[in-house]
Protein 1
Amino acid sequence: MHDVLIIGGGHAGCEAAAAAARRGARVGLLTFRADDLGQMSCNPSIGGVGKGHLVREVDAMGGIMAVAADRAAIHRRMLNASKGGAVRGPRVQADRKLYRRAVSELVASQGVRVIVGEAVRLGVDGGAIVGVELADGTRLGASAVVLTTGTFLGATMFRGQERWTGGRQGSPAASALAAQIRDLGLAEGRLKTGTPPRLDGRTIDWSKVQPQPSDRSLWTMAFAPNPAPLPQLSCAISRTNARSHDVIRAGLGRSPLFAGAIEGRGPRYCPSIEDKVHRFPDRDGHQIFLEPEGLDAHLVYPNGISTSLPTDVQIDLVRSIDGLERCEIVQPGYAVEYEYADPRRLDTTLQHREVAGLFFAGQLNGTTGYEEAAAQGIVAGFNAAAIALDLAIARFDRGTSYIGVMVDDLTIQGVSEPYRMLTARSECRLHLRADNAVSRLGPLALELGALNSDQAGRISAHLDAKGKAERALDRTASGRELGFSDPARKPLAEWARREDAVDLVRRLLPRSAAAEEAIADAAYAPYLERQRGELAARTRDRSISIPRSFDFSSVPGLSSEMRERLATALPADLDQAGRVPGVTPAALSALHFALARKAA
Amino acid sequence: MQDTIYALASGRPPAAIAIVRISGPNAHEAAAIVGGKLPPARKASLRALTDPSTGDVIDEALVLRFDAPASATGENIIEFHCHGGRAVVDALLRALERLKGFRLAEPGEFTRRALANGRIDLTEAEGLADLLSAETELQRRSAVARAGGALRAKLDAWRERILALSARAEVAIDYADEDDGDAADDLGPGLGQLASEMAGLLAAPRVEPLRDGIRVVVAGPPNAGKSSLINALTQSERAIVTAFPGTTRDVIEVPVAISGIPFVLVDTAGLRESTDEVESIGVGRAQEEAGRADILLWLGKPEDRPDHRSALQLRAKADLREGPQFGLPVSALTGEGMSVLLTRLVEEASALLPKGDELALDRRQHDLLEFAGQALVRGSDLCDPVLIAEELRIARSFLDRISGMAGVEDLLDALFGRFCLGK
């Protein structure tokens, strides 16, 4: 008997399994193949701007992605290094094989039982989940089930005129389960994602492309130190050119996307090279990042030429690029169209509103990216354990974490294109930095009992050090102490806001990550102060709650579309209601009145 | 179930026509009970209105029917256009009072229902409030512009441009390692341009002088002729209501329209400048009133005149032909100088009022727009795209609060102090 069963061993599934186990649940992780855990289907990198923030938050909650990324990192880059601390995004390129191995080890070390098999049916009784039935007839009982099946519930792959179904390239789909889940509200629509061809690095002329070395500083993704960093490789940069664009344009007629075969909406953010050339015809070239896939692998991932053009066109395209004139394609690129489940039917713990104990997490909910999947896994895993073992619910607020931003966005707004984290999605961006995830979420993690003893110890130590650094910054100092002629006495925190004084302040504090963080806080303090004022204006709206049973059709003057959106998203208060897409000021005040009438 | 409300929607009787408006779930019932057969929607029909309890005919009236949701309040509406005599109106209202589920509307309740049913938004409601209290042509035109959504259109256009600038800042942040990652280099001018456009609207004359009347304070030493002057001004022009005591015991405010411009003449005669210690208090109070004036009419010596940007020096009781000759001579007794004074007042006032259909902001909107403009000015000086993006976001959120997208409760609070009965 298990407390929690996870269906699917991708990034969401592994985090969910580990998270539930950390809270003391007996966890079973169901997967088609035991060696499939933590498979990176696409770009072999973890992190970035926005995504990197999520990874650090997952780490602060005791998750495994950051640790695995550090163990497998063969290239590091801190994005936006020259811009303010709020948007610095750590990113690593990982050795695919080593990453998978690290994930498997970490999952096993949490006491998760990996079960190889196929789930064909969810056991539901009286509106609650009771277990899962496998293809071989085995019945597994559980108090909570987390669905993290990614694209495995039915995806179609496209390349030129070729079509084939599956869960991922080279893997079967989970169609038996899909039919049942469709009845629970899947088949909201289809989304599209894609992948570039994989290249043989041995056939690339590296002298003709511009190298991008790894960052010199050995920062880590995880808060915990990495005892054995791997040797670092350089990436390289090339570009498409006019010839490449001609090849693409000539092949557009045979592109499944442009021939209208694919219905799913693709992401705006990393469109295929066909999209790029079609939408920006004036550009004379598009950047390509050549990313090695492993220390001893010869595969290279060309980031920037995602495509579903026919194989022969892909070959011509690749060979038109500087440095790739003699390059061999090991596996051509393809597009995937997949069904997703409407996340508006989930509450903010990612539990389905209609089936108690059933959670949905990961790409299944319409997100794109390993990091987005992992963060949802954390939320679902903690809360699945909470349901199974009657523990405290784990809630993430959009004011304190990107995890909270994502869960709020998904459950209130739903998705119309694959959801990817961008720092622009947060109105509290200056507060949600990648370097202060531990300070923001550490207390919650400790409170939930979500950390093992090593993790808890490290995080508590950091919170202490941070407190000390903040007190140190409260001390007033005269300008003379810092070496200025200005005798004025001001708190060190205020001095730290001056570009010409911040280094001097730094020297007065003990060198530590906590001190760096406190200094960065001081630099943003005026903005954070202002933000607190804004939050107060929204607090009144937040205090007007909407009962779960509220009937939106009782609000006069709402269009039927508006009513449908509100009824599906089920915002918990007037503040959330304001974020439902398309809601107008007039509708908001109508809702407000209706709530007041109901309360009266 | 919601009540059905009714009220006299037109002016106080006697008048040629009175309009009694009914809104709510049972409105059509009223038409049937009181007015006989229900007319088709939107077709004015003549009916005999009868009192159901006595069977007496109250009046012959036009009945207008509107069906929800396509009505002013979004509910079923009936309007009785009857003769405007006091007795007719009273009889009709009494008859309606007796109907089950009916009651007299509270001040502003029809507009509340329009808001509740999403028929108007909050800036339109504010404009409507002004429209209803408009007493002069100028006030009307300004309010029509606002009730019709002209302000919202302007705000929406600014919001769009802020979004475009935000997008460029965001690209520099979230796509730092891609080709377009340097799009944020020249955002400053765009922010600056928006800020100066906003400054234009912020500097424009506000709604309050138009809405509440240009405040003309008449001040000077005792017996200088303040009260007589005010009487003369109000006699020669249309007094809107009779004089009533002002917010303080010692000040009398007289609203009057001159050339279509609303003024409030403030008589400070009651401010006693008695002897010694008390004198300073009196002088202080007068100074305070003068400070609140849009225009100051000074009837004392030039050297004693309080500082004011729009002060007119007058020599009252000019008919007595005595004393030093300074300022504009006026005489309440003979009428000398009065037309010149009136002209001068109108001239001064025009500078303080919105021109024609010019958009005017009220205090709440002005303050919020000012904050938005300040954020843009700050942002235009910055280089860090993260901080620029933050200022743009702040500007956007202040604009949203003007139209009610955020801070709904606050806006409703500010709004509903202002409505009056029957509208």
Note: The mean pLDDT of chain A is 88.
Protein 2
Amino acid sequence: MSSSVAGTVSPTRQAMRRFRRDRSARIGLVLVTLLIVIAAAAPLLVRLAGQDATTYHIDLLDPARGNAPRGPVGGASGTHWFGVEPLTGRDLFAITVLGLRTSLFIAVVVTLITTVVGTLAGISAAYFGGWYDAVLSRLLDFLFGFPQLVFMIALGIVVPARFPRWLLLILVLSLFGWAGLARLIRNQARSLVAREFVEAARSVGSSGWMVITRELLPNLIGPVLVVATLAIPGYIGAEAALSFLGVGVPPPTPSLGRSISDSIAWVYTGADPWFLLFPGTMLFFAVLGFTLLGDGVRDAFDVRLRRTS
Amino acid sequence: MAEPVLEVHDLKVTFTTEGGLVPAVDGIDFAVAPGETLAIVGESGSGKSVSSAAVMGLLPSNAEVAGEVLLDGRELNGLPADELRKIRGNDIAMVFQDALSALNPYYSVGWQVAEAYRLHHDVSKKAALRRAVEMLDKVGIPDAARRADSFPHEFSGGMRQRVVIAMALVNDPRVLIADEPTTALDVTVQAQIMRLLDDVQEEFGTALILISHDLGVVAEVADDVLVMYAGRAAERGTVRDLFFRAAHPYSLGLLGAMPRVDVPPKPRLTTIPGSPPTPGSITTGCPFQPRCAYTHLVGERCVTERPELTPRPGEGDHEAACHLGRRPSDV
Amino acid sequence: MPGLVWFVTRRLAAALIVMLALSLAVYLIFYAIPADPAHLACGKPCTPDRLEQARHFMQLDQSTLQQYLNFLKGIVAGRTFGDGAAAVQCNAPCFGYSFPLARPVTTLIFDRLPVTASIALGAAVLWLVLGVSLGVIAALNRGRLADRLAIGVALLGVSTPSFLLGLLAILVFGFWLNMVPVSGYVPLTESPVDWAWHLITPWIVLAILSAASYIRLTRSQMLEELNLDYITTARAKGAGEARVVLTHGLRGVLVPVITLFGLDLGALLGGAILTEKVFSMQGLGDLLITAVGQLDVAVVVGVTLFSAFLIILANLVVDIVHGVLDPRVSHG
């Protein structure tokens, strides 16, 4: 690794270099790319398969077995690659792939919102300090320890039925999500603000906004990126959990969590474990891929937190 | 000197690292008798702290220790771990530089001193605590019985250092190794601590090995001095030998760099140009040669032949590892 | 130890203030803001009689402030709903009254609490013990097989959603291998053995998932800890390796672990709720979800507030333990 005469390589470049050498990070990147492609192209894939997520195929069910799908592997065949859903006969491939799309959509949107809000809150708290910082810190402490799941479920009772459920989900997940990043950014930014280069910039007459964007932000990209990437699998899991409990994405929009919840009875009796396994595996890989990617990003940026060695 | 309680012969310490083998200590000898003080002087990287750690058996697993370490004639190097444990903290004890990081923040000082006692004596916790309070009182901590329940962060720097000393002395060790005990303290507290160590020595006849880079402290308390450079001995003798008859250019450099009140003032302090070599980088000749102001008087020999400790003529046990053969100050 | 007493008092006062603020916020969100709170309390299907009863009992003609004060009074000292012959007594702590189910919410909560608590507490104990010991073992065996295994388990745990792992466990161990019961809760009082037997799988599932982050944390903290100066001091005193690691090293590691645990309490409750559903046990989660669907706002508010209070109090306990473990926080 060579450093130029004028100065050393920027931390971001160093990080990218470390990332490229990390094997599990590369695996994560491959997985994530694959997942994003599948999710983005989901409607296309579904049309390619010649199916959709809503058409019932009762003929493919076996009433003798409680309307479980006929045939092995949950009714998998050339037309229905993942088989069909019990009770309804809907194509499981379409449901799984579209469910992934739902999960990723919600997770990414929530991550974007919480990252922006959290970063702004954290930076402003560090920069302005005083009572604003004190109040914000108490608020963050509070949000942190709160039983989020309970509250998210409870809110369902006061929200009018006409309010789009997916929007509510995004808002509620964002409400609790920004706290983590805000706290981290605040701590990092505070140590930066105390350093002379901010003082120097101010003394030259830079406005607050300029100080924030030119001096603070570039140094905070690392932590922001790490937290954001690691947040995605968390939100994938959160949406899945809420849908699993029945208070997440409502039918008819496919959701991996809800499918898993529907599969419970079929798992207990062993009648159709494939109903669990296809959406379950997809969910597992979604979380795993983003976790490996996030771990890789984090290890690349912070040598101290290396998992091994 | 009288019969020494601790003798070290040809001590060599080599570390195995990713970069290869690093010789931190390359064959030194020293000894200390009961009631006497040996000062080991050198810059950081000279190997002085590694030497004392080697004596105690406290080096990490990637360090290989060769040579003889004799406590009352008994070989310590190579002893099985549980035998060594019985000696550590009991016959040989150590006082560390930074008392705040040397003490466990989660336990009271009384508990920690008592632990040192309990590790080597089969007594009840209460008896050990009593002994601990006794020790804390002896090192000059006021209201020792009550303060024994306090935690390290609740003490001032000087008081903390006394606690560390109490912890080291609680088992009446024959040898006390003090590694830069006053470096982190201010001058007045320094004097108190050194006086404490002196009193302890008088009362118990402890042999003291003082590791320091501060020649002022050395002048105050040491009987004998070993000057180390780059893992090797540069000069060895009594404290008077070093201060009045320094026989190694490095020692002279150290003395010259120290402001003194007993000689006429010089216009500026002399410093030794350059910096100490990284361990293992100098394989032949004298390690001090690159910085030596007198090497031109000796020539090639300084680079090709490693100087061994040779006695100064007519000066008893005063030895220097230098090809010059005569006192640099005579030049 | 006056320092510690003062520390506890400060924390307790802070906790009470937070609980008060929270009760106000919850009250506003669920009772004050909605257009027709009586309708939310009425249940499904909503008979006109019950609607009228709800409107009457909830004293909606009074000011919002007065209603809130009654609500608070109920929590602290109990209250009476309605008057005359139809009056209903709700003893302290009164978290509300469910009109559809015609029972005080507190009773409903305490009926279901043992289920959720059993799952949560058992799993927490298991994951703390498992997480910390595996983390210590991994740190002591750095780079060797035990370390890599621990890290691998940790990665798996972090990546798998709890309910997924739970269902897989049911499939494999319950159905295919027929080793453990797959559903149903047996109260401790009925049969301790059966109680534990039915809870073993949920405990292990929840524990593996959370142990993951504790293994990682303990491991990295332990590695850092063993490099600290006072560890060398302990060895210099003549302490054996076991004592050095356990008495001196572990103490410093426990502090961040306890801090993490405090932050995880909310997640612990969430995890317990999910696990309840997977293993078909009827706990607080089931109570809450049903209440939302049945428009029983009294139960919703009661469970929400109760859970929040529980977490705040648990956090208080964790804070105190933290203060006990780390004298730098509580003394001087």
Note: The longest strand of chain A covers residues 61-62.
